[in-house]
Amino acid sequence: MKQTTVLLLLLALAGAARAADSLNVRLIGGCALPGEAFDVAVSGDHAYVACGDSGLHIVSIADPSHPSEVGFLNTPGRAGGVVVSGDYAYLAVDTAGLLVVSVSDPTHPAEVARCNTPGQAYGLTLEGHYVYVADGSSGLRVISIADPAHPQEVGYCDTLGGAVAVAVVGDYAYLTGPGTRLCAVSVADPARPALVSRSEGEFGLEVEVSGYYAYVGIDPWVIVMRVADPLHLFEVARYGVGDEARGIAVSGGLAYVAAAYHGMRVLSVTDPARPFQVGFYDLTGFSGWTNGVTASGGYAYNAYGEEGLQVFQFFGSSIDGDAGAHPAIGPLPTVVRRALWLPSSLLTPCCSLLSIDGRTVIELQPGPNDLSRLAPGVYFVRTEPTAVSRQSLAVTKVIVAE
């Protein structure tokens, strides 16, 4: 009996030692996959994971807490990037270039066509009838997929440095790579892409564009670049995430960052010039590393190296019922650090932040509220009555962490 008790205690301690440190982010599910998961795309009830030498793996996420693999396809090289549109998945496959895969039946994906590229296809994105490939030393390659069964390269552009990631918004493609913090290429005419500006700097690993800003992942930062005028790119902010920012997904005013061995970081980018961390799931010391990430339906799907697919949920620094990125939490306690979010649908002024003895500390407004000057401790949000409803909403506990 004594030996059994000691064994159980040791197992409990081992589990505690492996428990990840986290704030406002929880790991709700995972699916082990062969190879190294580099990138992930989500469409409907399925996640499509580019798993290096083991090819494309398709995972059902109908229940995000219990993802399960339903199909796979070997690829002719190292699958490093994936995008999905309709019945097709498009993969960046190293020296093989672009691979087109039918996923009309996710349980039986089938190769449809290939389009070789002269360099090494690392990353890709899709816009309209074109796939834009970051092709290493061969820069940007533009491939028409008007007929997915017959993809054809129609244009290319030398980016004056290796290209490993690409994002397209409107008439411009934005690329990053070795020695290139960010470059802008006009793709108004996809057959004649032209380099219009380039910002030299650190080795760029990832780029995501949202609005007038590009978010570039390097080691160990996320750099925010203003791209309102693509001819004049300039840095407006950077935020340290502790490791290589290999994946970035921006959704609902939040940036989900895959920070290599340090796990998942969630930044508020409502004001892109002043990003700050609102949550994390720290994997330091774990046997794995994060690569690509995408956000969909209130979840962040992470390509977690040799561990396969992970599903995270951000649940913390907001009390917001009108945005998927800030799920409503009702009367449950919320842990925050520098900011507290309130739904934009509330009237102004909407709420008060009360101390534990009932004193009003701050009058709150819809959107972000700065709590950085408050002492750590327990507070309460009280929603004021409106002309529509004379009763206050439920009081919510807020724990301000150091």
Could you tell me the CATH topology label of the largest domain: Methylamine Dehydrogenase, Chain H
Low-confidence blocks of residues: 1-18, 317-332, 386-394
How many domain units? 2
| CATH first level of the largest domain | Mainly Beta
Class of secondary structure makeup: mainly beta
What distance separates the N and C termini?
43 Å
CATH architecture term of the largest domain:
7 Propeller
Rg, Cα atoms, Å: 23 Å
Q: Please give the count of helices.
A: 1
Fourth CATH level, the homologous superfamily of the largest domain? YVTN repeat-like/Quinoprotein amine dehydrogenase
Oligomer: single chain
Bin the helical content: under 10%
Identify the overall geometry. Answer: globular
The largest β sheet comes out as:
5 strands, antiparallel
Write structural notes for this entry:
The protein has two domains: 20-314, Methylamine Dehydrogenase, Chain H, CATH 2.130.10.10; 334-400. 4% of the residues lie in helices and 48% in strands. A five-stranded antiparallel β-sheet has the order 1-26-25-24-23, with no helix packed on it. Mean pLDDT is 86; it is low at 1-18, 317-332 and 386-394. The longest helix has 17 residues, at 2-18. It has 402 residues and is mainly beta. It has one helix and 36 strands. The chain has one helix at residues 2-18; strands spanning 21-23, 25-31, 39-43, 46-50, 56-60, 68-73, 79-85, 88-93, 97-102, 110-115, 123-127, 130-134, 140-144, 152-157, 165-169, 172-177, 180-186, 194-200, 206-210, 213-217, 221-226, 234-240, 247-251, 254-258, 264-268, 276-282, 293-296, 299-303, 309-314, 334-336, 339-342, 351-354, 360-364, 367-370, 377-383, 396-400.
